[in-house]
Design a protein that fits this description.
The chain is of the alpha+beta class and 291 residues long. It is built from 11 helices and 7 strands. Helices cover 56% and strands 16% of the residues. The longest helix is centred in the C-terminal third of the chain and has 30 residues.
Length: 291
C-alpha cells in the first residue's frame, strides 16, 4: 500500500512539474526557445496574425539587433522600455495596466512585448549612429521636385486669423449655423473680435504668417480664391467649427515647406531601406542554427 501511495505521489509530482523551454534556434550562440516563439505568435495574433515562421524570424532579427547594439555600448534602460510600453498603450487609448490586462487575456506576457520594444529602441539608436551616415539625399533633386510640386493655389503667403465657434456638446450643426451667420456679417480682420462678441463661446486667435504649402490642399485652394478680408467656409474640427480669415495675402513661391516634407519622406524611405540592408548584412555574417 505504501509503495502504491508513493508511486501515485511521484506520478502526481511529475504531472504538475513545469515544462522546460526547448531551444529552437540559436543566434551566434544565444538560444531562442519554443516558449518565446509561442509567445510571439500570440502577440502577432493581436496585431493581425503571423505563424511560427514569422515569429521566429522576428526573434532572430531582434537578437541580431541587440547583439549589434551591444557592440556599440548601447544599453536600453527599464525606464526607456516603460516609456515605450506607455506610448503603445496611449496610442490605442488605454492605460498601461489595461494593456497588460489585454495581453494577459490573450495569454501573452507583458515581458514579450517589452522584449520587442527593447530591441526596437536599441535598433533605433543604432540606426541613428550607423545607418543615418549611409543616407544621402540630393538637395538639387529636392529643389527640382519641390518646384514641380508648387502650383498656383500653393503660391501665396498669408496672415491669418482663426475664428472658432467652440463646441462642448458635440452639436456641430448648431454651431455651423452661427458660424455661417458670422461669415455673412464679416467685413475684415479689424472687426473680427468685435463681431465675435455677439456670439457665445466664439473665439478669435491670430495664426500669424502661413504659407499655402503649410496648409491642407483643400484649404489652400479655397484661400487662393479669396481676397484680403475674405473668410473661409465653416469646417468642423475637434474643438468646434473653424473658419480662417485673410488679413494679408501676397504671391510667394516658397518651396521650403514642400522641400522639408520631401526631405522627411525620402529620408524616412532611405533610412528604412538602409536599415533593412544593414540587418541583412548582419544576418549573412551570423551563425544561425535551427534545432
Amino acid at each position: 500500500m505504501l509503495r502504491l501511495i508513493a508511486a501515485l505521489l511521484i506520478g502526481a509530482t511529475l504531472s504538475i512539474a513545469p515544462a522546460y523551454a526547448a531551444t529552437k534556434v540559436t543566434v551566434n550562440g544565444v538560444p531562442i526557445s519554443d516558449i518565446e516563439i509561442s509567445q510571439r505568435i500570440k502577440l502577432l495574433a493581436l496585431e493581425g496574425g503571423g505563424g511560427s515562421q514569422k515569429a521566429t524570424e522576428q526573434l532572430i532579427n531582434e537578437q541580431l539587433q541587440l547583439q549589434e547594439a551591444k557592440k556599440y555600448n548601447i544599453t536600453i534602460t527599464e525606464a526607456q522600455v516603460d516609456d515605450a510600453f506607455t506610448n503603445v498603450a496611449r496610442n490605442i487609448k488605454v492605460s498601461s495596466d489595461k494593456l497588460r490586462q489585454i495581453l494577459q487575456s490573450r495569454g501573452v506576457s507583458a515581458d514579450t512585448m517589452r522584449a520587442r520594444l527593447r530591441a526596437a529602441l536599441a535598433w533605433q539608436q543604432l540606426s541613428g549612429m550607423i545607418v543615418q551616415t549611409r543616407v544621402k539625399i540630393s538637395d538639387l533633386e529636392l529643389d527640382k521636385e519641390a518646384a514641380a510640386a508648387l502650383d498656383t493655389d500653393s503660391s501665396y503667403d498669408y496672415i491669418l486669423k482663426e475664428v472658432l465657434f467652440i463646441s462642448t456638446t458635440g452639436n456641430a450643426s448648431a454651431r455651423t449655423g452661427q458660424a455661417n451667420a458670422y461669415r455673412k456679417a464679416f467685413t475684415g480682420c479689424d472687426s473680427a473680435v468685435t463681431l465675435s462678441l455677439n456670439y457665445t463661446d466664439a473665439a478669435v486667435r491670430d495664426m500669424g504668417r502661413r504659407h499655402a504649402t503649410q496648409l491642407p490642399d483643400a484649404l489652400a485652394k479655397e484661400l487662393a480664391g479669396l481676397n484680403v478680408g475674405g473668410i473661409t467656409k465653416p469646417r468642423v474640427t475637434e474643438s468646434g467649427v473653424s473658419m480662417l480669415a485673410i488679413c494679408a495675402k501676397n504671391a510667394a513661391r516658397d518651396t521650403s515647406f514642400i522641400k522639408n516634407k520631401l526631405r522627411s519622406q525620402q529620408g524616412g524611405e532611405a533610412m528604412k531601406a538602409e536599415s533593412e540592408k544593414y540587418l541583412q548584412e548582419l544576418k549573412s555574417k551570423a551563425k544561425i542554427v535551427y534545432s
